[in-house]
């Protein structure tokens, strides 16, 4: 490989879209460098790869022969980078600053050379690194020559690329280590130590989302730095010096920054099936105190858990269950005030801790989108809002003096009935100076912008349908905030928020796709001026190429024949139109109604999915809650279950492709598909869409001389909290009209899409044989993961259900609460799809009945049908492709109803527009299950 190829590989490891907004440190090891390119060099030995890297470092860019030393060549690379208009060097694209590999080279002595060096000894390590790698150069005291490269990389990453590939911050050392401090700043804590920091946080009794002064971090590093993090004693000595040593202070600052990102989880690396895997050990979260004051002057205390990571839906903290409310907050937990206590969930290994504190701050619950009846504990001052302060009597005099001298609207509220013994309560607003002894009452001078509540598409990019509010951290409320587009001198003043004094509003007509900066008049701001963008949804950007190719068992394949990719189906066999296509041929024509005013409910969630194109479940969860909080605040009940239901419904209705194994979500391109109809032909619009596409469809139909019409299919009103979009169908007496429309709009028309899907579903016996042929896997039993077993009577997974190793379906909870589902068959464990697994289990234990032609079917008495509806237990969702067929026969989500169809009340999903050929033959043929007919009306139109 040439030098620039090496540079591009290494730079892309650090700077890429997945690291947008994250702090980047150029720490890398020799094995890391080798593994980066090993797949590109086909079975070349590790030592050969490493020697090639060193050779290219010594050779440099073309034209470097006149530059003798490694740092001379680094400066030459920097000079080439500064040339205007240079796009490539030696036929290789100039994707990144071409000196990154040289900066990496300066850090390698710190990661590769082990020995009894002082913690801040750089040049001896460098000399030994050069000697060990047969590089005969004297580079001592020459780091000052490449000082401009560090600054330039920071400018490239943070300003030119707006942090969209990651932030690179240089630390300025002003004392002894001015130049060697740069390499040290990249690895003040090596990755192995950073990975163990959660273990240190847990061992020291810390909880996330809490306030700890700098001295706390310093103490914990001194106590646990050697035993847990593997730091050297010399590094601990630097930490003990604190702000008297710049490297020691950098270590403390790095740990503080890692704590801010800590979710409360600690993990363990295990070996399973010969592969290293990370599993969650346990999770700790804080309990925040809250109170409300009633009309009789009584104060009532309670608590809320504050999550930093998505909790399991069935989290139960002691006696409290079903506790998730919104925005990673629990609902109110009513419990008498105590100085400190824990709540535990032993099954999920969660602990909620209420820590002892001398002083607690409170702000209105409305600040967190919670009830304004409550005042909720927070960790820092908000100068513009009324706040409360609860403290122990021993500190009363000092705090009262601060309130009287520093704050406006100060009031002693300590006479409220119900206040804990030996405590005082003050209310105040607008502090103008910090308290000398309590870090929680420190007023930070630096201000920075924070975006809240908007629909985020990407890093610093938001959807125009729901703009974010602009919060200024440490604002005093008197700021004059303005927006300025790139290349424009005009200042657009932002209006103030009606409720919060430190929040401003973006103009509703902010220009789409135009980058802009935010500034405060006549005030310097901390950090870099970064740009923001607002964009609109655009269906033309959607593509099936973002999806993996899957076979009929939903496994990734590389074949070019016989696979599903998003809403594209590639078959090797033709569909049986003669038999299966009968349901799609109408018996009579329909009178086409021309309607140019189609009422379509706006769908912010679908617009967000269209704009993001590809996202993950975490970002989806955030967007869902943002929309629900802003649009339907009264529907925030069982929000976790609703989010999960919605993502599955959107997948089955054909809007998205959701891969629950990787938690990735792809919004699919729009397409028209034929669906069954008795009167006239009917087509359904699936995939993503935007306002432009819908407007064009309505306009086309209005001008089509009554040959085609568009209809909006409203989802059931009780689904309002699920944020489902309306479905759109078209009717005509000629299938050719759908072809004309699709050609006009440049979207695909797939006439036999549903029948193609039907051909792509394996029989139940085929699926079982497939998992057996794939081979068994090591189960998670010996690793102690959360496990549930599916109970075929209750039709759900239960914690205490006994495990039958001969034949049972189990659920294991992995890291980030992703689930793995497995079948135990004859004492062997096989990984399966959850829904296929449920039908395998039911089929295995159900009674057998003889069917037409002598075939035997299972008779579980679970699925029922009437003339054109189908009732399936809500806890028995169909396998993915099967589910898409049933949903897209009508384009409407099923009705969720409690019915008594087998002698007891059960919650069912009732599907519409299901031809008998599907509800009878289809289920028998695919799932080997007998469908029960019923005279009960399953669905009322």
What does this structure look like?
The protein is α+β, with helices and mostly antiparallel strands and 941 residues long. It folds into 7 domains: 185 residues, no CATH class; 73 residues, no CATH class; 167 residues, no CATH class; 87 residues, Immunoglobulin-like, CATH 2.60.40; 219 residues, no CATH class; 72 residues, no CATH class; 88 residues, no CATH class. 28% of the residues lie in helices and 23% in strands. The chain contains 25 helices and 48 strands. The strands form 13 sheets. Strands 3, 4, 5, 10, 11, 12, 13, 14, 15 and 16 form a 10-stranded mixed sheet that branches. Helix 16 runs antiparallel to helix 17. It is globular and about 90 Å long.
Summarize the structure.
The chain has 25 helices and 48 strands.
Radius of gyration: 32 Å
Number of structural domains: 7
Kindly state the number of beta strands: 48
Q: Note the overall shape.
A: globular
Residues in helix, %: 25-40%
Query: Main beta sheet, described?
Result: 10 strands, mixed
Count helical runs: 25
The secondary-structure class comes to alpha+beta
Mean pLDDT: 91
First-last Cα distance: 68 Å
Residue runs with pLDDT of under 50 for 5 or more positions: none
**Beta-strand content:** 15-25%
């Amino acid at each position: 490989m040439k030098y620039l190829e090496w540079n591009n590989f290494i730079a892309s490891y650090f700077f890429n879209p997945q690291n947008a907004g994250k702090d980047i440190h150029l720490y890398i090891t020799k094995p890391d460098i080798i593994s980066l390119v090993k797949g590109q060099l086909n079975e070349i030995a590790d030592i050969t790869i490493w020697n090639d890297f060193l050779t290219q470092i010594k050779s440099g860019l073309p034209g470097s022969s006149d530059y003798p030393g490694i740092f001379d060549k680094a400066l030459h690379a920097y000079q080439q980078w500064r040339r205007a208009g240079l796009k490539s060097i030696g036929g290789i694209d100039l994707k990144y600053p071409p000196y990154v590999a040289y900066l990496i080279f300066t850090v390698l002595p710190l990661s590769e050379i082990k020995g009894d060096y002082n913690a801040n000894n750089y040049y001896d390590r460098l000399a030994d690194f050069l000697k060990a790698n047969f590089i005969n150069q004297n580079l001592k005291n020459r780091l000052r020559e490449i000082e401009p490269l560090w600054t330039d990389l920071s400018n490239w990453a943070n300003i030119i690329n707006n942090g969209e590939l990651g932030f690179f911050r240089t630390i300025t050392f002003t004392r002894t280590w001015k130049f060697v401090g740069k390499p040290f700043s990249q690895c003040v804590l090596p990755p192995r130590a950073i990975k163990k920091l959660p273990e240190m946080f847990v061992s020291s009794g810390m909880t996330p989302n809490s306030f700890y002064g700098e001295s706390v971090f310093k103490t914990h590093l001194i106590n646990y730095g050697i035993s847990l993090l593997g730091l050297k004693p010399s590094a601990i000595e630097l930490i003990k010096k604190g702000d008297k040593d710049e490297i020691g202070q950098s270590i403390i600052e790095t740990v503080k920054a890692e704590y801010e990102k800590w979710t409360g989880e600690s993990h363990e690396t295990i070996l399973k099936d010969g592969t290293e895997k990370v599993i969650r050990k346990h999770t700790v979260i804080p309990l925040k105190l809250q109170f409300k004051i009633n009309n009789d002057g009584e104060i009532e205390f309670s608590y809320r858990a504050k999550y930093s990571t998505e909790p399991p839906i069935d989290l139960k903290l002691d006696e409290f269950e079903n506790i998730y409310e919104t925005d990673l907050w629990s609902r109110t937990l009513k419990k008498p005030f105590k100085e400190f206590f824990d709540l535990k969930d032993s099954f999920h290994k969660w602990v909620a801790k209420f820590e002892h504190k001398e002083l607690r701050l409170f702000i209105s619950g409305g600040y967190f989108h919670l009830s304004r009846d409550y005042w909720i504990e927070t960790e820092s001052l908000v100068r513009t809002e009324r706040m409360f302060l609860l403290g122990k009597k021993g500190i009363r005099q000092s705090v009262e003096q601060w309130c009287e001298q520093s704050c406006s609207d100060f009031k002693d509220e300590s006479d409220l009935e119900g206040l804990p013994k030996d405590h005082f309560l003050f209310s105040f607003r607008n502090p103008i100076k910090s308290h000398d002894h309590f870090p929680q009452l420190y007023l930070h001078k630096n201000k920075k912008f924070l975006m809240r509540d908007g629909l985020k598409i990407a890093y610093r990019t938001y959807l125009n349908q729901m703009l974010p509010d602009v919060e200024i951290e440490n604002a005093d409320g008197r700021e004059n905030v303005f927006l300025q587009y790139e290349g424009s001198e005009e200042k657009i003043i932002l209006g103030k928020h009606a409720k919060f004094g430190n929040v401003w509003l973006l103009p509703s007509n902010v220009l789409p796709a135009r980058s802009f900066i935010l500034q405060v008049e006549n005030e310097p701001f901390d950090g870099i001026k970064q740009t923001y963008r607002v964009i609109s949804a655009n269906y033309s950007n959607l593509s099936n190429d973002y999806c993996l190719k899957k076979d009929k068992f939903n496994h990734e394949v590389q074949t070019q024949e016989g696979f599903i990719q998003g809403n594209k189906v590639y078959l090797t066999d033709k569909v049986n139109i003669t038999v299966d296509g009968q349901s799609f041929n109408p018996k009579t024509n329909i009178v086409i109604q021309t309607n140019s005013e189609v009422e379509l409910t706006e769908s912010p969630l679908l617009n967000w999915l269209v704009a993001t194109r590809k996202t993950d479940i975490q970002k989806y969860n955030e967007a869902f809650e943002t929309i629900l909080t802003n649009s339907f605040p009264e529907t925030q009940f069982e929000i976790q279950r609703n989010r999960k239901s919605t993502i599955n419904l959107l997948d089955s209705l054909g809007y998205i492709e959701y891969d629950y194994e990787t938690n990735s979500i792809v919004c699919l391109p729009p397409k028209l598909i034929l669906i069954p109809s008795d009167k006239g032909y009917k087509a359904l619009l699936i995939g993503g869409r935007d306002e432009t596409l819908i407007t064009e469809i309505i306009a086309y139909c209005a001008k089509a001389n009554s040959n085609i019409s568009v209809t909006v299919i409203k989802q059931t009103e009780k689904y309002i909290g699920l944020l489902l979009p309306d479905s759109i169908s078209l009717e005509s007496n000629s299938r050719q009209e759908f072809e004309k429309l699709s050609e006009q709009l440049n979207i695909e028309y797939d006439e036999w899409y549903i029948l193609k899907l039907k051909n792509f579903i394996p029989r139940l016996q085929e699926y079982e044989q497939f998992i057996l042929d794939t081979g068994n896997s090591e189960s998670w039993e010996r690793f102690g993961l959360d496990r549930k077993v599916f109970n075929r009577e209750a039709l759900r997974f239960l914690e205490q259900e006994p495990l039958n190793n001969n034949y049972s379906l189990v659920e294991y909870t992995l890291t980030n609460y992703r689930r793995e589902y497995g079948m135990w068959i004859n004492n062997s464990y096989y990984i399966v799809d959850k829904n296929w697994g449920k039908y395998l289990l039911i089929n295995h234990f159900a009674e057998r009945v003889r069917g037409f032609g002598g075939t035997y079917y299972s008779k579980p008495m679970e699925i029922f049908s009437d003339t054109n509806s189908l009732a399936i237990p809500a806890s028995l969702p169909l396998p993915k492709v099967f589910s898409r067929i049933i949903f897209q026969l009508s384009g409407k989500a099923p009705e969720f109803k409690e019915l008594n169809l087998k002698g007891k009340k059960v919650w069912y999903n009732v599907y519409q527009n299901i031809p008998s050929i599907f509800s009878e033959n289809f289920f028998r043929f695919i799932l080997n299950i007998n469908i029960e007919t019923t005279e009960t009306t399953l669905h009322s139109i």
